[in-house]
Amino acid sequence: MRTFLLSNLLLLYAWFSQSLSSDSLVVTQTPDVSVQEGETGSISCCWKGTPERVDVKWLKSQTLIKNQKFINQSISSQNEQGNTCSVLIFARITYRDSGRYICKVSVEIPVLAKGEGNGTTITVTARETPDKDTIAGLSSEILGVTQSPDVSVVEGETGRISCCWSGTAQRVGVKWLKNQTLIKDETVITQFRVSQNESAQTCSVLTLAKITSRDSGRYVCRVSVEVPVLTEIKGNGTTITVTARETATTSTEKGFPSDVLVVTQSPDASVPEGESENISCCWMGKAQGFGVKWLKDQTLIKYENVVNQSTVSQSDQANTCSVLTFSKIKSRDSGRYVCKVSVEFPNLTEIEGNGTIITVTARKTSTNNAEAGVSSNTLVASQSPDISVLEGQTGRISCCWTVQAQRVGVKWMKNQTLIEQRIVINEPEVSQNERPHVCSVLILTNLTSRDSGRYICKVSVGLPILTEVEGNGTTITVKARHHHGLAETLVVTQSPDVLVQEGENGRISCCWTGKAQRVGVKWMNNQTLIKQRTVIGISQNERAHACSFLILTNFTSRDSGRYTCKVSVEVPILTEVEGNGTTITVKVRDHHGFAAMCSTNSITA
């Protein structure tokens, strides 16, 4: 009897599967259309068949714009060809609605089936304005749009391009696009009126700060008015070319060539530490306003605007300078300083100087000075030799120095990482003919293997000048403590690899042999901790065999992976042993799970 029922179920399932295959779900869309801006347009998506539940998605440029569900469709909803349709309607269509629209149709009952249309392209055209309408005045001839010419800008600078139009409209929309992508949208409102026989000039400016090579491209502005009718005019475009910074000195801009803007810097200088120094950046040019940037190692350290108050004739060339001042110069001020001079009108131009190198030298200290003895040849740091320490013990290493300074800074580093910092102050004064021997001791308690490494001390004094000396380093090696062969007696084994069916339950085991009374067990999946427990109660006088079980219920494909257990004891010393791992493979149930289950039941019976 059960076999007869199973056969009927399989036949019924096969009939449902064939009633709506992907081949029978044929989706068609209306052909491409062209619609005037402001009108109403519609496109349709149709399919054959009478499924009970249908999902329809409309997409434009892979973006979902409409989602519909059709439930219990009657035959009366079909058209003459026996198709059912979804209609996408556009009221007062605009040019933003232009594009390709694709519909995707899917059914879930009795089986999943999907179909996709071939797409419909909508082209929205501008509505023509009557030539004789006296209140219009916004035809393409009157709404004239012009853009600034192509420009070349140095990377990191600010670029500006303009879009200007002439017309009598008081409210204008301006859109800036790069490679058909909208990057700026603004509305410009003019407060004054212009007579019919005059043409006002209004502009929108696109500013790009700290321009990069990604900003290179063609920028197009679109100017539109809505009253009396919607009209949009496109500019001819402006191409921005962003050049690398190193090519700035050879660039030439229209209206202000590089041979007019000449930049020179003061020569290289060597300055003793603590003194004052000035370096200059001078230029010749006919502009009245300049921007000056001072940079050190490509980092901006000063910016100023220089304005020439006097007017220079076209035949003369004014010489203007910017000065960078250092008071009480320090060793960290050493480096290359570059100035960049820029003008914005008539076009953005920037010229870079050849640079000035400042070298700060250490000030020589008199040997008879009471504050002397802190140069690098008198500040000597030495460290204790390398040591080897058992795990759990305390280690001490020292760093000693000879110097007459009363205040010394000490830094202890391990692998370039600061681990301790202190200030050592010598209270008693030492005579001129003695060299005190002072030490700093680094104490490490309860050493572990992680403390192994090379330790370096850095000794520094601040008076009369900053001086720092580094020791030769001390290597600490931490050895594991052996305790009656515990690593050999702590043996860990895991259950073999298993294959399970999705939705089932299962468990895997981790067993060990040893004499420890307190054992920690960690279960890891792909190096991630998923379970941790402590097992207590193993006799001292026997070789106990204990296990920990990891139970997993309702297996899913995410549970597949390698499971490793780590068994550890803390007494007498920390010891951890890892098992060889157990791999769990979760097999996904067949898509027709009920058929497979029925087949299993009939075989069992």
Note the topology.
Layout: H1 2-19, E1 27-29, E2 33-36, E3 41-48, E4 53-60, E5 63-71, E6 83-90, E7 99-107, E8 113-116, E9 120-125, E10 144-147, E11 151-154, E12 159-167, E13 171-178, E14 181-189, E15 200-208, E16 217-225, E17 231-234, E18 238-243, E19 262-265, E20 269-272, E21 277-285, E22 289-296, E23 299-307, E24 318-326, E25 335-343, E26 349-352, E27 356-361, E28 380-383, E29 387-390, E30 395-402, E31 407-414, E32 417-425, E33 437-444, E34 453-461, E35 467-470, E36 474-479, H2 486-489, E37 491-494, E38 498-501, E39 506-514, E40 518-525, E41 528-536, E42 544-552, E43 561-569, E44 575-578, E45 582-587, H3 593-604
Parallel strand pairs: 2-9, 11-18, 20-27, 29-36, 38-45
Antiparallel strand pairs: 1-3, 3-6, 4-5, 4-7, 7-8, 7-9, 10-12, 12-15, 13-14, 13-16, 16-17, 16-18, 19-21, 21-24, 22-23, 22-25, 25-26, 25-27, 28-30, 30-33, 31-32, 31-34, 34-35, 34-36, 37-39, 39-42, 40-41, 40-43, 43-44, 43-45
